[in-house]
């Protein structure tokens, strides 16, 4: 049973970058994809992008192209999401999720516990 | 981009009520549709995948239907622990609906 554990909360300055980690356990890391989803306070869910570790291929939502970088370290079964040029409206909880792509259909399960990133001067 | 529109945005219901939430895609997505439940301060939880397949461990009062552009999540008899926000997601390009908050009447 896969479990995803994310890094702790961050407070960042506008214009800086943040890197959030997501450590997987319980299954072969490279056998599935990882997606990142964010949720601004009181708002809905927003898919940011994903990675397939075994191929190293990434796919980003157009909104975040050029500002987000998703990587993995297979030696530690950890995925990372780095968001640059932070603005106040990037304040949100950031989630990682296993992106089940091996079946005909795909879904997100399980999810990490979430990481609050606050952007404030 | 494929847009997902949920309705209603919120609803009030009583324990034991039958609740239906709809999700419409801006273009056909076959059965590439998932449903999630989110409680305050918690990560979303997968309920239904591929439009109508119940995720393991999810109570059978939850069901999903639809294909193409129109989909439905039904809770047959609302329980106290079901008060939450529900999101649909199309899994072609991963986008979510805006959510439906189910509140206690």
Topology:
The complex is a heterodimer of chains A (121) and B (105).
Chain A: E1 3-6, E2 10-12, E3 18-25, E4 33-39, E5 46-52, E6 57-60, E7 68-73, E8 78-83, E9 92-100, E10 107-111, E11 115-119
Parallel strand pairs in A: 2-11
Antiparallel strand pairs in A: 1-3, 3-8, 4-5, 4-9, 5-6, 7-8, 9-10, 9-11
Chain B: E1 4-7, E2 10-13, E3 19-25, E4 33-38, E5 45-49, E6 53-54, E7 62-67, E8 70-75, E9 85-90, E10 100-104
Parallel strand pairs in B: 2-10
Antiparallel strand pairs in B: 1-3, 3-8, 4-5, 4-9, 5-6, 7-8, 9-10
Write up what this structure looks like.
- The complex is a heterodimer of chains A (121) and B (105).
- With 121 residues, chain A is an all-beta fold.
- Chain A has strands at residues 3-6, 10-12, 18-25, 33-39, 46-52, 57-60, 68-73, 78-83, 92-100, 107-111, 115-119.
- Chain A is globular.
- The termini of chain A are far apart.
- Chain B is an all-beta fold and 105 residues long.
- In chain B, the strands form two sheets. Chain B has a six-stranded mixed β-sheet, with no helix packed on it.
- The relative contact order of chain B is 0.35.
List keywords for this structure.
heterodimer; A: 121 residues; mainly beta; 7-stranded mixed β-sheet; 4-stranded antiparallel β-sheet; B: 105 residues; 6-stranded mixed β-sheet
